């Protein structure tokens, strides 16, 4: 579909927000050993910046889920494409997600991870579209709240593209 991009959240705003989230996480977890679980692919840019704003030892893991077939319409069903290789038992797990939309992805993920008996699970999401929520998801650390519009950049894609933008842009379809 023909579309254009409009800058929406600047690189500077992102940097400030990520630093603020990092400080909150350090303050909340203090001496705990956090396992950050990034949801691929979208969260990898945010996770890479966020972990460097967390001034204490953390471990990183990844999980890959798929809820969108192609483009910008949610299929509603979630598939586990690639799992963590660490045991989560007794760990303090911080799930790092790019954006929470309907909440279906995180709902499925939290259920899956909770069954592995971690000590705690919290959610950190860079963007939050609260207006479209179908599942009741509590986002513990949130970057920006946005309206129901499709955004790209900073790890987020449209049909596989634009993950490499340093800022968040709105997609305007023509
Ligand atoms: P949910 O399961 O509906 O909450 O969808 C969450 C997933 O859909 C996110 O992890 C993103 O990968 C994708 N997604 C939702 N909204 C957007 C968007 O505006 N831009 C790019 N990806 C999105
Ligand atoms: Mg995602």
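-> sequence recovered:
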């Amino acid at each position: 579909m023909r579309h254009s991009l409009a800058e929406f959240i600047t690189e500077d705003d992102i940097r400030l927000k990520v630093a603020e989230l990092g400080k909150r996480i350090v303050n909340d977890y203090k001496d705990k050993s956090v396992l950050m679980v990034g949801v691929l692919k979208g969260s990898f840019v945010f996770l890479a910046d966020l972990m460097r704003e967390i001034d204490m030892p953390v471990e990183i893991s990844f999980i890959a889920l798929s809820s969108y077939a192609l483009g910008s319409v949610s299929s509603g069903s979630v598939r586990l494409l690639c799992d963590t290789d660490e045991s989560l038992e007794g760990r303090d797990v911080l799930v790092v997600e790019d954006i929470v939309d309907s909440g279906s992805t995180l709902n499925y993920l939290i259920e899956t991870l909770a069954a592995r008996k971690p000590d705690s699970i919290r959610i950190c999401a860079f963007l939050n579209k609260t207006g479209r929520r179908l599942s009741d998801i509590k986002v513990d650390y949130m970057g920006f709240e946005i309206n129901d519009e499709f955004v790209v950049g900073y790890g987020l894609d449209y049909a596989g593209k634009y993950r490499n933008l340093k800022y968040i842009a709105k997609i305007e379809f023509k």
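Strands lie at 3-9, 34-40, 58-68, 74-82, 92-100, 120-128, 141-145, 151-152, 168-173.
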